[in-house]
């Protein structure tokens, strides 16, 4: 049975007019996922493979419709157990990005995300990397984790479905620097 990792409706980005502290802005881009059954290739691309991605991830990322599709105006990313002979890693999923296609310097990013009932090993996340990632690598490019769930500390505390995290990661004098916060939501 598939596990729906995230359902994003719609993805909206606002650009600030004037000072960063401004609470209003002009909509400069959005994706309502309301056209077709696959992602707009002019905006989205896929991370493919099973390299672990620096997080010791066990799944193979694919662009297969079983793992990533548009359904009734929703981006649906699904984790699947691999069928025998399909993938030797045991699981497939999808990871989408806008690298080299869509870049913003300032703004608000909004998404509505439905998270599945989590189990050990699932780590749904919505995050950004600096647009210079391919040139300078991580952490020099910077990373903003807007939403993450499924951490080991949430598992051990028995709040895996209630603990939401956010973090920033960057390089400081040749070392990885970061700041994170976690919130336990109401049950």
Description:
This protein has helices spanning 133-136, 152-156, and strands spanning 3-8, 11-16, 25-31, 45-46, 60-61, 68-71, 74-81, 91-93, 96-97, 108-110, 125-129, 143-148, 163-172, 175-184. With 187 residues, the chain is mostly beta strands. The longest helix has 5 residues, at 152-156. Helices cover 5% and strands 40% of the residues. Strands 1, 5, 6, 7 and 8 form a five-stranded mixed beta sheet that branches. It is globular and about 45 Å long. A hairpin with a 2-residue loop joins strand 13 (163-172) and strand 14. It contains two helices and 14 strands, in the order E-E-E-E-E-E-E-E-E-E-E-H-E-H-E-E.
For this entry, give a set of tags.
187 residues; mainly beta; 5-stranded mixed sheet; 2 helices; globular; disordered N terminus
CA distance, first residue to last residue: 25 Å
Radius of gyration: 17 Å
Q: What is the overall silhouette?
A: globular
Mean pLDDT: 82
> Would you tell me the structural class of the helices and strands?
mainly beta
Low-pLDDT runs of 5+ residues are: 1-22
Percent strand equals 35-45%
Number of H- or I-type helical stretches = 2
Summarize the amount of helix as a percent range.
Answer: under 10%
Summarize the biggest pleated sheet: 5 strands, mixed
Number of strands: 14
SSE order, one letter for each helix or strand: EEEEEEEEEEEHEHEE
List the topology elements:
Blueprint: E1 3-8, E2 11-16, E3 25-31, E4 45-46, E5 60-61, E6 68-71, E7 74-81, E8 91-93, E9 96-97, E10 108-110, E11 125-129, H1 133-136, E12 143-148, H2 152-156, E13 163-172, E14 175-184
Parallel strand pairs: 5-8
Antiparallel strand pairs: 1-7, 2-3, 2-10, 4-9, 6-7, 7-8, 11-12, 12-13, 13-14
């Amino acid at each position: 049975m598939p596990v729906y990792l995230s359902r994003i409706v719609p993805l909206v980005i606002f650009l600030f007019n004037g000072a960063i502290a401004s609470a209003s802005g002009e909509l400069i881009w959005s994706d309502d996922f309301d056209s077709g059954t696959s992602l707009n290739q002019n905006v989205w691309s896929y991370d493919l493979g099973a390299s672990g991605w620096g997080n010791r991830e066990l799944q193979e990322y694919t662009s297969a419709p079983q793992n990533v599709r548009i359904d009734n105006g929703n981006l649906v990313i699904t984790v699947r157990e691999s069928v025998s002979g399909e993938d030797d890693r045991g699981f497939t999923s999808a990871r989408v990005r806008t690298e080299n296609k869509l870049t913003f310097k300032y703004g608000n990013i909004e998404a509505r995300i439905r998270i599945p009932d989590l189990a050990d090993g699932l780590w749904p996340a919505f995050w950004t990397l600096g647009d210079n990632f391919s040139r300078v690598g991580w952490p020099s490019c910077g990373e903003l984790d807007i939403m993450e769930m499924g951490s080991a500390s949430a598992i051990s505390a028995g709040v895996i479905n209630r603990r939401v995290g956010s973090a920033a990661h960057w390089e400081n004098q040749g070392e990885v620097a970061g700041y994170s916060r976690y919130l336990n939501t109401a049950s």
